[in-house]
Amino acid sequence: MLRRPLLAGLLGLAAAPAARAQAPLTVFAAASLTDALRDLGQQWRARGNPAPRFSFAASSALARQIEQGAPADIFMSADEPWMDYVQDRGLVAAATRVSPIGNALVLIAPADSTARVTLARGTDLAALLGPRDRIATGDPSNVPVGRYAQAALTWMGQWDAVAPRLARTDNVRAALLLVERGEAPFGIVYETDARASQGVRSVAAFPAESHPPITYPFALTRRAEADAAARAFLGFVAGPDAAPTWQRFGFSLAR
């Protein structure tokens, strides 16, 4: 279940005139949030605020950049463990942490593929690949989508067979691109990424019970803990005004 602590304080600041500082915010965000966040950034600017500066990459890369002193105001991760990583090191304000949205995990193929697959325990994914082809996904050693993929493949009983056949990428959008280009016949990505691309189609969804819930924790970094503008933007993207946009891009909302 998605975690959603009380947002009253953040939401109150979202409309506060004091939040309209001149300096733009720097937001470090998971690559899978790219399209929705760019839309929300335009909405934020239309409200009279400076446009946020976004840095999109794998959550692992962003967390390590924050650890190394990168000047981020807000961190938006694609999984809880990488937020735990920065929180355990005292790099984010724990009281501001909220997980307002979620996602699903899907198997994709190029748009012109005719492949049909049912994802269940025992489904032989390796047999779909032929002798040399690979399945594209994030590197399971550190990229959230790859970790979810590993969990799902393990649940299916396919991890040992498929692990050597993975095309391991730095983030989910790189995996998506390999399938779009036809360089991999299948990929494991988030449902929202599949929806955003005209070059792929979703072949099947992995059962929800096959992997940990896909949730996106957001938090202020310590450097921005007292920044009214940062609190206001976090309240906006985690609150009801942003909910229709998240849903339009295919994300689920916390209940």
TrEMBL record:
This is Molybdate ABC transporter substrate-binding protein. Keywords: Metal-binding, Signal. InterPro entries: ModA, ModA/WtpA. Pfam families: SBP_bac_11. Belongs to the bacterial solute-binding protein ModA family. Residues 1-21 form the signal peptide. The keyword Cell division does not apply. The keyword Cytoplasm does not apply. It comes from Paracraurococcus ruber.
